[in-house]
């Protein structure tokens, strides 16, 4: 889209990002509170693993079938309705927790599942509307700024959540999700979201999912990139999911130090997102992606060789700041390329398939992470993740269709804009 067609696009997109920040941070505070409650009440790794899987599986399993609805339904409605549903379940959970001494475990799991399903609808909707809200030449920067918003939530939410968890009863703290939903919806009402013409054909879930898969597969460089990204997530996730165990078990640290690692990593992500948001107009975005995979591989590998002492922990903190800074370059730049590669009316179905392929690797990695760490040691998982990251980066470098994809994409778009 040309800048001249969107005279007030910047004010509009920043109002949208503000709504995402305010609704996102309240949702994450509640998410942390629920996990901490489960930890305190059960002390069970199995319960926590199940809670984590419930938060990840809907994205992996439902994304291909959500995409057709994203392409056809009103985008603002797709952002608002899931927030309303999540808020209703938060109210139910709060009421039950007030009437009883403890929350029923099954109701907490249902609440976590509903929240995850709501996010499964919202994430591809946000990804698909960004190209319609900003000029093409600003898309990478705006994606970087969206990443900054998400990173800021990840920095603030743990600290704010810990403070509120200590002074506010959990049954009332959960209602913060309702407050966030009200604020987010109120701001969204003032956001202008361009709508492409609604597709008149009825939804056929399998046919539409196949349509998204075919679109992705028929874009050779992007298809290979997606598969490599899934492999990258599979190798990376086991170690990433065990940061608390690495801190408290291997380095013999405290809960506070485990929280510090999460914050430091998120601060690194915020710094990386800031760099993308300011300097995001690269002629070939594959180069910073390859550099980020190299940086993540090296920092993870180095973490696995650190001594299990407090001096080793200090080095671990520094390495995680660097790894966090590198992380947004892979995910953010990949998303910008996908958004520019397909028509807006096809984007929801393509993103649904792509999100499913990359997301399914996360639960697979989590299933094997615990038993593998018990056998070989958690620090060895960081070395395995490092080798996998470097291998994925080398594979991308050796595949011309992947290595040159973005340069060709931007050259094609420049030619089309010049012709028009």
From TrEMBL:
Subcellular location field: Cell membrane
Keywords noted in UniProt: Cell membrane, Membrane, Transmembrane, Transmembrane helix, Transport
Major subcellular site: membrane
Domain of life: Bacteria
Membrane topology: Multi-pass membrane protein
The keyword Transcription regulation is assigned to this record: no
Transmembrane residue ranges: 12-38, 44-66, 78-97, 142-166, 172-191, 222-243, 263-282, 289-307, 313-338, 350-369, 381-399
Signal peptide positions (record): none
Domain (Major facilitator superfamily (MFS) profile) ranges: 12-403
Keyword Transmembrane: yes
PANTHER family: INTEGRAL MEMBRANE EFFLUX PROTEIN-RELATED, MAJOR FACILITATOR SUPERFAMILY ASSOCIATED DOMAIN-CONTAINING PROTEIN
Record-given protein name: MFS transporter
């Amino acid at each position: 889209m040309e800048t001249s067609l969107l005279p007030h696009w910047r004010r509009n997109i920043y109002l949208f990002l503000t709504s995402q920040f305010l609704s996102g941070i309240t949702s994450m505070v509640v998410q942390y509170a629920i996990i901490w409650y489960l930890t305190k009440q059960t002390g069970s790794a199995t319960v926590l693993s199940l809670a984590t899987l419930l938060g990840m599986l809907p994205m992996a399993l439902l994304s291909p079938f959500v995409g057709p609805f994203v392409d056809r339904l009103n985008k603002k409605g797709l952002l608002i309705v899931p927030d309303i549903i999540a808020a209703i379940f938060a109210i139910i959970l709060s009421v039950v927790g007030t009437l009883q001494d403890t929350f029923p475990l099954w109701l907490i799991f249902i609440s976590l599942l509903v929240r995850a399903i709501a996010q499964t609808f919202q994430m591809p909707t946000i990804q698909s509307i960004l190209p319609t809200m900003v000029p093409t030449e600003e898309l990478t920067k705006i994606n970087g700024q969206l990443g900054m918003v998400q990173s800021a939530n990840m920095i603030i939410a743990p600290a704010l959540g810990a403070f509120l968890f200590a002074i506010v009863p959990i049954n009332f703290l959960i209602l913060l999700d309702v407050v966030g939903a009200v604020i987010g919806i109120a701001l969204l009402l003032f956001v202008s979201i361009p709508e492409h013409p609604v597709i008149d054909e009825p939804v056929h879930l399998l046919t539409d999912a196949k349509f998204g898969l075919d679109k992705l597969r028929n874009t050779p460089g992007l298809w290979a990139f997606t598969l490599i990204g899934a492999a990258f997530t599979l190798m990376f996730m086991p170690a990433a999911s065990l940061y608390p165990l690495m801190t408290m078990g291997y380095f013999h640290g405290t809960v506070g130090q485990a929280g510090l690692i999460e914050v430091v990593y998120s601060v690194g992500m915020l710094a990386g997102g800031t760099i993308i948001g300011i300097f995001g107009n690269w002629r070939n975005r594959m180069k910073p992606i390859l550099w980020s995979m190299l940086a993540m591989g090296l920092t993870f590998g180095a973490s696995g060789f650190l001594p299990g002492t407090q001096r080793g922990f200090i080095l671990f903190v520094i390495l995680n700041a660097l790894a966090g800074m590198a992380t947004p370059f892979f995910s953010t730049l990949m998303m910008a390329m996908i958004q520019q590669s397909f028509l807006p009316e096809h984007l929801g179905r393509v993103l649904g398939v792509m999100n499913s392929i990359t997301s399914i690797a996360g639960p697979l990695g989590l299933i094997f992470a615990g038993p593998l760490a018990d056998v070989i040691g958690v620090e060895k998982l960081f070395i395995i993740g490092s080798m996998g990251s470097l291998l994925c980066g080398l594979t991308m470098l050796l595949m011309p269709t992947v290595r040159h994809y973005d340069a060709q994409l931007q050259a094609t778009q420049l030619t089309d804009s010049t012709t028009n």
